[in-house]
């Protein structure tokens, strides 16, 4: 007859050494979640509750915000944190529900490649955005654009 181990007995599996990616992923999710709450509510407050509210949002408003380094970095930080947070969450769900190792590995690589591509594309858009495009109607442009 086999005896059942005492449930209060310490687990005797050998400890792994090295970087614990799951622990750091867990910590990242908590820290980025708190930062995202601050960034998102700040974004919503400025866009919807100040000035004329939602009626102020047009190309000139966005162009004015994205011409400021402060708002560029605010938006890029929000973009990076959100995409990495989302990709890490999708990785966790994939690890939980995909049982075939090859499929799981492929999906996780695809998740991170798509996240990296979107981060690169979004960062380029924010930092290369021209709020004063040539040939645009003057009434759509921000006040700081010269009418030429």
From TrEMBL:
<keyword id="KW-0349">Heme</keyword>
<keyword id="KW-0249">Electron transport</keyword>
<feature type="transmembrane region" description="Helical">
    <location>
        <begin position="107"/>
        <end position="129"/>
    </location>
</feature>
<keyword id="KW-0812">Transmembrane</keyword>
<dbReference type="GO" id="GO:0006099">
    <property type="term" value="P:tricarboxylic acid cycle"/>
</dbReference>
<comment type="pathway">
    <text>Carbohydrate metabolism; tricarboxylic acid cycle.</text>
</comment>
<dbReference type="Pfam" id="PF01127">
    <property type="entry name" value="Sdh_cyt"/>
</dbReference>
<keyword id="KW-0408">Iron</keyword>
<protein>
    <recommendedName>
        <fullName>Succinate dehydrogenase hydrophobic membrane anchor subunit</fullName>
    </recommendedName>
</protein>
<feature type="transmembrane region" description="Helical">
    <location>
        <begin position="27"/>
        <end position="49"/>
    </location>
</feature>
<comment type="function">
    <text>Membrane-anchoring subunit of succinate dehydrogenase (SDH).</text>
</comment>
<dbReference type="InterPro" id="IPR014312">
    <property type="entry name" value="Succ_DH_anchor"/>
</dbReference>
<keyword id="KW-0479">Metal-binding</keyword>
<feature type="transmembrane region" description="Helical">
    <location>
        <begin position="70"/>
        <end position="87"/>
    </location>
</feature>
<dbReference type="InterPro" id="IPR000701">
    <property type="entry name" value="SuccDH_FuR_B_TM-su"/>
</dbReference>
<dbReference type="InterPro" id="IPR034804">
    <property type="entry name" value="SQR/QFR_C/D"/>
</dbReference>
<keyword id="KW-0813">Transport</keyword>
<dbReference type="GO" id="GO:0016020">
    <property type="term" value="C:membrane"/>
</dbReference>
<keyword id="KW-1133">Transmembrane helix</keyword>
<dbReference type="GO" id="GO:0046872">
    <property type="term" value="F:metal ion binding"/>
</dbReference>
<keyword id="KW-0472">Membrane</keyword>
<keyword id="KW-0816">Tricarboxylic acid cycle</keyword>
<dbReference type="GO" id="GO:0020037">
    <property type="term" value="F:heme binding"/>
</dbReference>
């Amino acid at each position: 007859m086999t005896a059942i181990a005492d449930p209060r007995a310490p687990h005797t599996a050998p400890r792994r050494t090295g970087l614990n990616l799951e622990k750091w992923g867990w910590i990242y999710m908590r820290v980025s979640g708190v930062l995202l709450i601050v960034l998102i509510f700040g974004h919503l407050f400025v866009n919807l509750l100040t000035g004329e509210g939602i009626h102020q949002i047009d190309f000139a408003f966005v162009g004015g915000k994205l011409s400021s380094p402060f708002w560029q970095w605010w938006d890029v930080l929000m973009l990076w944190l959100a995409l990495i947070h989302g990709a890490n969450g999708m990785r966790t769900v994939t690890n939980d529900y995909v049982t075939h190792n090859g499929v799981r590995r492929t999906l996780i690589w695809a998740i991170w490649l798509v996240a990296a591509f979107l981060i690169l594309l979004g960062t380029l858009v924010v930092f290369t955005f021209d709020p004063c495009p040539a040939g645009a109607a003057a009434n759509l442009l921000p006040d700081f654009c010269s009418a030429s």
